[in-house]
Amino acid sequence: MMNSINIAPYKKWGIICVIAISSLYSCVPALESVQENRAIPEQYENKTDDTTNTALLSWKEYFKDPYLASLIETALNNNQELNIMLQEIKISKSEVKEKKGEYLPFIDLKAGVGVDKVARYTSRGASEATTDIKPGREMPEPLPDFFVGLQAQWELDIWKKLRNAKKSALLRYFSSVEGKNFMTTNLIAEIANSYYELLALDNQLAIVTQNVEIQSNALKIVKLQKKAAKATELAVRKFEAEVLSTKSLQYTIQQAITETENKINFLTGSFPKHIERDASQFSIIEPNTIVAGVPSQLLQNRPDIKKAELELEASKLDIKVAKARFYPSFDIVAGIGFQAFDTSYLLKSPESLLYNIAGDLTAPLINRNAIKAAYKNANARQIQAVYNYEQTILNAYIEVANQLSNMNNLDKSYKLKTKEVDTLNESIRISNVLFKSARADYMEVLLTQRDALEAKFELIETKMQQMNASVNMYKVLGGGWH
After folding, report:
1. Which of 238, 308, 309, 377 has the fewest CB atoms within 10 Å distance of its CB?
2. How far apart (Å, rounded) are the C-alpha atoms in residues 116 and 125?
3. What pLDDT digit, counting tens, does each position of 46-78 carry?
4. How far is the first Cα of the chain from the last one, in angstroms, to the nearest whole number?
5. Are 298 and 396 a contacting pair, CB within 8 Å?
6. What is the domain-level CATH number for residue 423?
7. From which residue to which does any coiled coil extend (predicted)?
8. Same domain, 139 and 196
C-alpha cells in the first residue's frame, strides 16, 4: 500500500502566500484618472469636407525650384541637429533591445581558479587529512580549486512588469522617429522660408539700385535748374541727402543678404558660401495651391501629434510597470558545472559535477515609500501626457486655421499693393514732368519717390509673406517628412 503524502503544511504556506499577496494588492495607492479628449472639429471654417490634402505630397513635389530642392536635399543629409536626432533614434532602439533582454533568462559562463589553506587542527582540517581518491594519500595542501560552468537567472514576469517596460520603450522608439519627422518638417520649412527671404532681399536691392539711378538723374536736373536760377541750393541739398540715404540702404540690405545666406549655410551644414538662386522670377512666382483636407487628418499627418500620442500610450504602460513593483517578484536561479582541486579530475563525472536550482519569492513589505513615489510620479507624468496630447491637437488646428486666414488676407493685400505701386510709378513720372516745367516743387518729387520706394518694398515683403504662408501651410498640415 502506497504511503500518502501529508499536504497540510503546503496548504498552510499557500494560504499564507495568498493572504500576503492580497494584502500587497490592497496597499496599492489609488490614482487620479484623466481621460484624453480626442475630439476635433469636423471641418475648417468656410471649408468643405473634401479629404484631398496637400500634406500628402512629398517635398520634392511641392517645391519645384531646383535651387531650393538642392538646398533641402543637402540639409537632410548634413544638418547637424537632424543627425543628432538620428542618433537619439538609435539610442531608443537600443533601449528597446535592453528592455526585451530583461525578461529573458540571463545565462553566464563562469570559470574560476583559487587556492585554499585550511588549518590542520580544525574539524575541517582534520577531516581532510586523508582522501579516498587514493587511499593513504593526504589531501593536497594548500588546496587548489578549479571551476567551470554555467549560471542562469530568470525573473518570471508574472505581472508583466518587464514586458510592459519593453512595450513602453518600443513606443518611445516610435516617438523618437516621429520627433525626427517633425524636425524634418520644420527644417524644410525653415530653409524654404529663408530661401524666399533671400530672393526678396535680392529684389529689394535691385529696386534700391534702380531708385538710386532715378534719384541721381533728378539730382542732375535740380543742379541744372539751380544754374538757371529755377531752383535753390536747398533743393540741391535735399536731393543729395535723399540719394545718400538710398545708397546707405543698399549696404543694410547687403548685410541682410549675407546673414540670410549664412543662415541657410548653417542649416545645410556648410561654411559660409554663396547660395545659388534665381531672383529674377520672384515677382511673378505664384504660391502653391493648398488643399487643407479635413481636421481629423492632422492626427495622422502631423508628426508632433503622433509623437504626443505615442508618449501618452507609453506613459500608461509606465503606470502598469510602477504598479507591478508593489507585487512579489519570482526569480529562478540555476547553475551547473564542474569543480575539483586538480585539473585532471575537473571533467570527471559524476564526481566533479555540481548543479543547483532555487526559486525566490521577493515582495516589498516595509518602507515602500520609494515605490509609492515612483507610482505617483508615473501617474502625474501620464496626466501631463494627456494634457500635452490635447494641447498638441489644439495647437495644430489653430495653426492651420491661422494660416488659411493668413493666405487669404495676403492674397487680397498683394493685389492692392500691386495697384498702389502702379499708381505711385505713374505719380513719379507725372511729378518729374511737372518739376521740369516748374509746376511742382522738389518736395513733391522727393515725397513721391520715397512713397514709391516704400510701396515697392512693401509689395516685395507681401510677396515674401505669401510664399512663407504657402510654406508654413504645408508644414502645419503635416507635409514634408514623407
Report:
1. 377
2. 11
3. 777 788 899 999 999 999 999 999 999 999 999
4. 78
5. yes
6. 1.20.1600.10
7. 72-99, 443-470
8. no
